[in-house]
Amino acid sequence: MLKLNYEVVVIHTQTKPYKILAGFKDSDPLELLKKESILFPFAEASVNFIAQLSKNIFADKQLRNYPEFISLAHWLRRAHIIELKNEFQDQFKDRITLSRGLILHFAPANVDVLFVYSWLISLLAGNKNIIRISATTEKRTGLLLKKIRETLEKYPIIASRTLIITYPHDTEITKQFSMMCDCRVIWGGDHTVQTIRSISLPPHATEIVFPNRFSHALLCSNTFLTASAEEKRVLIENFAKDFLWHHQATCSSPKNVIWLGSSDRNQEAQTEFWQKVNSYLIEKNPKWIEEIKLKQLTLAFCLAAHPLVEKFTDTLQSPIFNFKIKHIDQSLRYLHKGLGIFFEMEIRDLRELYAILDSKDQTIGSYGVSQNEWKELVTKLPKRAIDRIVPFGQMLNFSPVWDGYSLLTYFTRELQFFENRQSL
Amino acid sequence: MFNQHPYLTPKANKKKWLLSYLNELTKYHYKHSPQYKRILQTLFLFSESIDSKPFTELASLPYIPSQIFKELELKSVDNDQVRITLHSSGTTSKNTSRIFLDQETSELQKTALNKILLSLLGNTRYPMIIVDSLSLLKNRATFNARLAAILGFMRCGFDHLFLLDENMQIRTSELQQFLKRYETRKILIFGFTSLIWQYLYKSPFELNLQNGVLIHGGGWKKLQEQAVSNTKFKAQLRDRFNLTEIYNYYGFIEQTGSIFLECSEGVLHTPIFADIIVRDSVSLKPVPNKKIGLLQTLSVLARSYPGHSVLTEDLAVCEGEDDCRCGRLGKYFTILGRHAQAELRGCSDTYTN
C-alpha cells in the first residue's frame, strides 16, 4: 500500500520539477494516475468524498472565517450533490454516459476556490484529475489544501485519481501533462488561454476554455424606487455581496451598472441607490475601502483619461466611484479592474442592450426585469453575448453550467448504443 | 526660481511663492498634456477656461497618484523634446513608472538638488565616494532611479571613487589610496541605503571614515525586512566606521531634484522648491500636523511632465512647520513606510505566476 503524502513533495519530471500539493506520494505519481481506472458518473466514493470534504470545511474554525469557503462547503454538501445527480440522471435517462478519462485543469490565480469546483465536478463525472494551481503564499489557500489532504487521506480511491500540483510557467511541463490528458480545462485570462492553447493535445482530446469576461448589473429604476425599505436593504446587501468579494475583480463581479427607465426616474434611483451603497460600506466594511483606496484612485485616474468616459459623479472622498458612459468598448472592459468603481449607463428600453452586449459579457445581475422579458430578449440577441442572468447576490455563485458549458456534459461522453429487439 | 536659500523662507511667503509656480504649472500641463487635461476635467471638474480662477490654498491644487505613471505616459512636451526617460528602479517591464524629462526640466532638477546639498555642505565641494558600481554607469539603457540619483549627486563632489567593482566587491586598494590622498579633508559619501548596508557595513574591512559625511536614500524597505531602523543604521555605522555625520534623504523619480533631506534632528525637511500635504488614507482630506496619513508632495520643478503634485503610497507625519530646532524653515516630517494595500489579482495571469 502506498503512503499518502501530507507534505509538499517536489517531483522531478524528466528535467523540470513540479510540486505536489495533494494526491498520492509515489516515485512516479503520473504512472500511477495513468494506471488507475476511471469511475462512473456520480460513483458512491466520489459523492461520499465530496460530502465529507464539505463537513470537514464546515467543522474547521479557521476555514469558517472565509465566506467563499462557506459557500463552497454549502455547495458540496450531500443534499446538493444528490440534487445534481438526480438532474444528471434525468437528463441522460436510458442513455449510457461515461467519464472522459483524465482531465487536466489550469485553475485561475484570482479565485482561490474555483479549482475545487472544477476538480469536483469533473470527479463527479467520473474522471481522474490533474489540477495545476498558481504558486501562492496566501494563508487561506494553504488552509484549504490542508483540509483537502486530510480528507483525501481517508479516501485512497479518490486520492490515487487526484494530483493537485503547482509549477512556475513552463511550456515543457505543460506539454508533458497535456499529452496525457483526454480533456484540458483552462481558467484564466485571455493571455493564459492563448498561451496554453498553443501547446498540443492528443488528437482525441477536447478543450474547455474560460477567458476574460465582463459583467453587468441591471436595475429597473421604477421597481427600485417603489420597493419597500426592507426590499431595498436586502437589495443593497446582495449587491455588496456581488462586488465586495475579490475586490470586485473577478469576471462575474458587476462593473457596469445599467439603469432601465426614464431619465428622471433613473437619476432619482441612482442618487438613492449609491447613497445607500456608500452608507452600507462605511457602516459594514470600512476596512475594504481603506485596503483598496490607493489602487482605486489610480484606476480612477486611468479611467478618467479614457475618451469614452463622460462624467465622474462623485468626489474623490466618496467610497465608491461612478463614471457615466454612453458607450462601452473592449478597452473600457479591459481597463476596469474592479476596486469599488462602477461605470453607469442608462437605457429606456431593454432592446438597447443589443447594441451594448458583447461576446466578452458573461453575467447580468438583474433586478426588476421578469424572466419572460429576459427570455424574449436573449432569444433575439444579434450576436454571442451573455452566459448568465441571475438575481443580485448570486453573481459570484458557482454553477455547473458556466460560460455556456454544461460542465457535467462536457466532462462526460455518451456511448452510442444500438438497442435492438433481438441482440447485437 | 533659484535666488532664494532653500530653507529660509517663512511659511506665508513660501505659500505665496509656491502657489504662483504651482498654479502656473497646473495651467501649463492642462494645456500641454491631453491626458492630464481629461483627468482634471473628469475628476476635478475643470472647465476649458482654466485661466479664470487660481487656487489660493496648496491643498486645493489637483493631485495625481504616483502609480498613474505606471499606467499612462504623461508628458507635456513633444516626443522630440524628451531627453531622458526615467524608469522606476528594477527592470523595464510594463510595471515601472516612466517619467519624461526635457532639457529644461532636467536642468531645473540638477540645480535644485545642488542648492539643497550645498546648503548642507556649506557651499563647498568635497572629494566623493559613491557606494555603487561603475558598471551601472556604463549601462545607460537602464536609466533608472539609482543612476539618476548618482548622476545628480555627483555634481556636489569631485575626484569620484566608485567604491564597488562589477561584482559589488569593495575596490580596496583604490579606497586605501583615496583615503590616504584625503586624510585631512572632509569627504562626501553617497549611496543607496540598502547598498550601503549590504556592501559597506557588512564588508569585512576595517575602515576609519571619521572625515566622512554620508548622504543616503532610496527607501527602507529592504532594511526594514532585516529590522534595521534609521536609528540603528546610524548607530551601527558610527560604531563601525567612526562615521558620525549621516543624513538620509527621501526622494522618488516622480519628483527628482526637490529631495527631502534629513537634518541633525532626524526629520526630513521641505526645501523652498517643494512642499508636502498629509491626507487621510480614506477620506483623502488633509490631516493636522502630528497625524498619520498619505503623503502628497508638491514640486515646482516638474515641467515636462505633470508631476508637480503627486499623491504617494507612503504614510507620513508632518511634525511641524518653520520651528525645527535645526533652524531650517519649512514643513518637516517623518516617513512611516508604505501604506498596506490589498493584493489585487484580476481574472488573469494563471500562467504568468
How would you characterize this protein structure?
The complex is a heterodimer of chains A (424) and B (353). By secondary structure, chain A is α/β, with parallel strands linked by helices. Chain A has two domains: 9-212 and 406-415, Aldehyde Dehydrogenase, Chain A, domain 1 (3-Layer(aba) Sandwich), CATH 3.40.605.10; 214-402, Aldehyde Dehydrogenase, Chain A, domain 2 (3-Layer(aba) Sandwich). Chain A has helices at 29-35, 44-59, 67-76, 78-91, 114-124, 139-153, 156-159, 171-178, 190-197, 221-226, 229-244, 263-284, 286-304, 330-335, 353-356, 371-378, 407-410, and strands at residues 9-12, 17-23, 96-99, 102-106, 128-132, 162-166, 183-187, 206-210, 214-220, 254-260, 309-312, 321-325, 341-347, 361-367, 388-391, 401-402, 405-406, 412-415. In chain A, helix 2 packs antiparallel against helix 3, helix 2 (44-59) packs across helix 6 and helix 11 (229-244) crosses helix 12. The radius of gyration of chain A is 23 Å and the shape is globular. With 353 residues, chain B is an alpha/beta fold. Chain B has a single domain (11-338), classed as Rossmann fold, CATH 3.40.50. Chain B has ten helices and 14 strands. Chain B has helices at 11-32, 34-43, 68-71, 103-121, 135-138, 145-154, 172-181, 193-201, 221-225, 230-241; strands spanning 64-65, 82-87, 98-102, 126-133, 157-164, 187-192, 212-217, 245-250, 260-262, 268-269, 274-279, 292-299, 309-321, 331-338. In chain B, strands 1, 4, 5, 6, 7, 8, 9, 10, 11, 12, 13 and 14 form a twelve-stranded mixed β-sheet that branches. Chain B has a two-stranded antiparallel ribbon with strand order 2-3. In chain B, helix 1 crosses helix 2 (34-43). Mean pLDDT of chain B is 90; it is low at 346-353. The A-B interface holds A 106-111, 134-135, 168-169, 186-192, 195-196, 212-213, 246-247, 249-251, 286, 289-295, 297-298, 300-302, 304-307, 309, 311-312, 316-317, 319, 323, 337-339 and B 35, 38-39, 42-43, 45, 64-65, 67-68, 70-72, 281-285, 294, 311, 313, 339-342, 344-353.
